[in-house]
TrEMBL record:
Name listed for the protein in its UniProt record: Response regulator
Organism: Paenibacillus rhizovicinus
CDD domains per record: REC_YesN-like
Signal peptide: none
Chain positions with 4-aspartylphosphate modification: D56
Start and end residues of each Response regulatory domain: 4-121
Domain HTH araC/xylS-type stretches: 445-543
Keywords for the protein's UniProt record, in alphabetical order: DNA-binding, Phosphoprotein, Transcription, Transcription regulation
Record-level GO BP terms: phosphorelay signal transduction system
Keyword Phosphoprotein on entry: yes
UniProt GO molecular function: DNA-binding transcription factor activity; sequence-specific DNA binding
Amino acid sequence: MNGKVLLVDDEQHITRNLEKVIPWSMLGLTIAGTAKNGVEALELMMSEEPDLVLCDIRMPVMDGLELVRIIRERGIACDIIMLSGYQDFSYTRSAIQYGVKDYILKPIPYDELTGVIARVTSERRNKHALEKEEQRKLQRIIDLANEKILYDVLMDYADLTPDHWLMAGQEQRIEEPQYTLIVLDIDVGSADARDWREWRNKERKMWNFAVCNVLRETLENAELQHVVIQMRDGEWCVLLLGCTGESSAPAYSEEERERLREQQVSLWTERLLLSVRQNAKLQLHAGVYRQVAAMNELSAAYKIVQRGMQLSTESRPIAFYGSEQTGVYETDQALWDIAERLIGAMKRGDAEGVNAEQRRIGEQLQKAGGGAEGRLKPLLHFLALHLMRELKEANLLSWEQEEALWRKMDLRFGVKDLFAAIQQASSEGAARSKDKRKHSELQMAEAKQYIDRHLFRDLSVEEAASHVGLSTSHFSLLFKGAYGETFIEYVTRQRMETAKSLLGETHKSVAKIAKEVGYAERRYFTKVFMKYTGQKPSEYRMALQGAGSLVHDEEEHEDER
């Protein structure tokens, strides 16, 4: 795209010559207009927004120096080259003070001026490219932070009160309906998943990472605001920001708008499934939350979709679920609730709790009577698969044990045998969990030490979990249980406390402190610091050290505007 140039000189023959002699097209510029004085130039700048201004110094009504002063006061982002027939140094000095890029004496040496314009234009484009790249990096940093926060939100680990210090920026809008939630999952019991089941942990980890990249790239190419989060092995949650596909036109009824939105979301979900099938060579199925969800509704929405996908006996690539469906089948719902409590007890190593939930499953089967073999057998099969995946995610199931259980599952045996498999797997899981409790305490202590040593750089929950040999979801659960806050809350708190110490005890600039505590972007650091303390970094430092200790750092002040 060409830039715009404004020519300002009271001598019309000079502006005509400039228009004709300078190779504007070759320089990537077009002439937005000409003006005879500063007043006319300001009027043109309101509508044209030029990138470059060539301006004479001595003009009637408003001279060039006054024009430049007003341009800088108003914060108009343009480069300026001054033209003058006067060699007085005071003019040059004034021009330099206002940030003029260059000063050309009349009569104008057009070859020299062309070179100056080329240099100034090149510098401007390089600056814009650098700013764009910095903005991209900042956005990626914010996106990564949001992913970490949203994972904790989906898993119901995070505190979502509006005044929570971690809810900075867009995350603060927790009560606005803004997310379309899609869960993508591999049908672990299907024939299509047999190759996936045979992969070892390293292969699966690489494949999970590849699928995340496929999903992100598909959504980025479509220019949809999104977050992609791996929830567990073979399951992802895609959050689309806003009411994707929903028409707000008054001509449509509420029912018609909902139908149009559902059609549009279905199209996007089909595109995601197709991309994974073409690029990762695996068949997934999808569950979509029918309504849009606010941040503080995401955890419930995720559980509804996940539960609906597990309880469904229909084989559909895309299905919609809503809160009105949670009580459709009383026995199905009761069994799922029992299974969730069973898994929780198993992860805690609570043998008595596991036994109690096993008894409740037996009672539900007796209550179902003859219907158990029909409708409940598929449900029990799904629950057994769900239990296996949770055992695997909690690092309570070895690859050999998993392989043996898969062989049993493939036989599709009856309700009694399915129930026995659930009992055996959950009892063994609870025993292993109890044995691993002390080991887990050591793992969390090691993870905490690792985190503290690497606060100075971008540290992900996946990296910390991998360091102690745990899956992300199990690590997050253990960390919250051990320290009473999520990984991202702990990391951010430690960084903010370190920053407070550095601001109070040193004269380092805000930019340097931001980097030392792990923030590549000063603006994002300032944003989080303000949310955490209620003050800008420089204000916090002044309160501790007094006005005489202010650091004269232009970067710092620019950062906090």
